[in-house]
Design a protein that fits this description.
Bound molecules: pyridoxal-5'-phosphate
GO molecular function: aromatic-L-amino-acid decarboxylase activity; glutamate decarboxylase activity; pyridoxal phosphate binding
CATH class of the largest domain: Alpha Beta
Shape: globular
Number of domains: 3
CATH superfamily of the largest domain: Type I PLP-dependent aspartate aminotransferase-like (Major domain)
Distance between the termini: 42 Å
Catalytic activity: L-glutamate + H(+) = 4-aminobutanoate + CO2
Keywords: Decarboxylase, Lyase, Pyridoxal phosphate
CATH topology of the largest domain: Aspartate Aminotransferase, domain 2
Family: Belongs to the group II decarboxylase family.
Radius of gyration: 25 Å
Cofactor: pyridoxal 5'-phosphate
Length: about 475
């Protein structure tokens, strides 16, 4: 091993050094970083290198920025290890896995009150992004068929959504040539709620996206009110516009802890719903779902038939090979937790979110934007009307020094003057841990408030991307 000091940014170094503690006699102590090394390493050595490098990642338990599950129990991990060789697309070879995928989709359709869960159609996906692409494509294709059948142009489709949609919707519009009609959220209207919808929709509108669990704030868009606004538009203008519910987060929360909210297939205008299993479905990353309310909601020409069991199975999806193991993990959790288990887990999570909200609301420096009463997610900004020698980016940095990852970011277009911080509460953030976070928050705000001159505007960059 050379004693030469490595550049500070070791990612730029050409070689990976192997600590002499781990290198076995005769093994190379330096491995190329950006090309395949010439020689083999022992598995132990290769393992140690990769393991050590990712140890530098943040501590998942203290990552309050992500919606994505970072913990499963040991039985789930065993099942994962038992099944991570299964390719979901090999339906003929893995018939049982295929049957379980189908079963999970029906379970979700039932959870979301589809009139006939077994008559729904849908698929598991790599996450909500793929599911949203498919939901959007079905809206576009249905609209195109309807327009062509009456000899009208299908050249200029548009999709209506709030400015606070997750980036996957902007991708959808860009990748599939659909105009994004953006309804800006504001301090008065924090979510898309159907207000003034008639000035956004027209005969080229393929649908409206209702986000049930807004990524920026954790708030639910009121699907019922959006549907009611569209009912009025249909009555007056004759436009029958469907809704896709982006339930990436909320579709796994509300059925358990807010069953009184009507947001799903009980609303006849809701054509399709997506969800991420790897968020509040509590599964490790890599799994989402799309479910259409009935066969009519997914045009035939978006289904592909694969030969299977001497017959043909219709499939829909943007990818081909995908791991089957996460689907099995989802089914495991349905069995393991049941409705009651999901309810208890999410309720405990929401209790912690509301505890944090109350504590933050008591701090004179802050004003809550959302308080965890929808998703267990809270956002807050600096109270207006006084000056500060610091901003929330500085607070994020201070908290980071204690291990907490609490992102700071500007709100979307037309509200970018407002910078918020967000905590996504997940199962791992216990009430005790949340108490420790509150103590650290007080300590760091206390430090920042003691400054007698403004901190230089260093490091002011969003710590998070939606
Ligand atoms: C509302 C919403 N839609 C879609 C997505 C994309 O989900 P995924 O990361 O599962 O692709 C997210 C991710 O946070 C989200 O919050």
């Amino acid at each position: 091993m050379s004693n030469t000091r490595r550049p500070v940014d070791s990612a730029e170094a050409d070689v990976v050094e192997v600590n002499p503690l781990f290198a076995r006699p005769g093994e190379s102590t330096e491995l190329a970083r950006f090309s395949i090394p010439d020689c083999e390493s022992l598995p132990e050595t290769a393992y140690q290198i990769v393991h050590d490098e990712v140890a530098l990642d943040g501590n998942a338990r203290l990552n309050l920025a992500t919606f994505v599950g970072t913990w499963m129990d040991s039985h789930a991990e065993k099942l994962y290890a038992d099944t991570f060789d299964k390719n979901l697309i090999d339906k003929d070879e893995y018939k049982a896995t295929d049957a379980i995928e189908e079963r999970c989709r029906i379970i979700l359709a039932d959870l979301w009150h589809a009139p006939e869960p077994r008559n729904t159609i849908g698929a598991s996906t790599i996450g909500s992004s793929e599911a949203c692409m498919l939901g959007g494509l079905a809206l576009k294709r249905r609209w195109q068929h309807a327009r062509r059948s009456v000899g009208k142009s299908s050249e200029r489709p548009n999709l209506v959504m709030s400015s606070a949609v997750q980036v996957c919707w902007k991708k959808f519009c860009s990748y599939w040539d659909v105009e994004a009609r953006i309804v800006s959220i504001s301090e008065e209207r924090k979510v898309l709620d159907g207000h003034d919808l008639r000035s956004y929709v027209d005969e080229n509108t393929i649908g409206v996206v209702a986000v049930f669990g807004v990524t920026y704030t954790g708030m639910y868009e009121p699907v019922e009110r959006i549907a009611a606004a569209l009912d009025e538009i249909q009555a007056s203008k004759g436009l029958d516009i469907p809704i896709h519910v982006d339930g990436a987060t909320g579709a796994f929360v509300a059925p358990f802890i807010q069953p009184h909210i009507t947001w799903d297939f009980r609303i006849s205008r809701v054509a399709s719903i997506n969800v991420s299993s790897h968020k509040y479905g509590l599964v490790y990353p890599g799994l989402g779902w799309i479910v259409w309310r009935d066969q009519a909601a997914l045009p035939e020409d978006l289904r592909f038939r694969v030969a299977y069991l001497g017959g043909e199975t219709p499939t829909v999806g943007l990818s081909f090979t995908r791991p089957g193991a996460q689907v099995l993990l989802q089914y495991y959790l349905f069995l393991r937790l049941g409705r009651d288990g999901y309810q208890r887990v999410h309720q405990a999570t929401q209790d912690v979110a509301q505890y944090l909200s109350r504590e933050i609301a008591k701090m004179p420096q802050f004003e809550l934007w959302s308080d965890g009463s929808d998703l267990p997610v809270l956002t807050w900004h600096l109270r207006k009307g006084r000056s500060y020698n610091w901003n929330q980016y500085h607070l994020s940095d201070r908290l980071r020094m204690k291990g907490w990852q609490v992102p700071t970011y500007p709100m979307p277009d037309d509200l970018t003057h407002l910078t918020v911080q967000r905590i996504v509460v997940r199962g791992g953030l216990s009430r005790d841990l949340a108490g420790a976070l509150v103590a650290d928050l007080h300590a760091e705000v206390g430090f920042l408030e003691s400054l007698t001159a403004p901190i230089e505007a260093l490091g002011e960059r969003p710590g998070f991307h939606h």
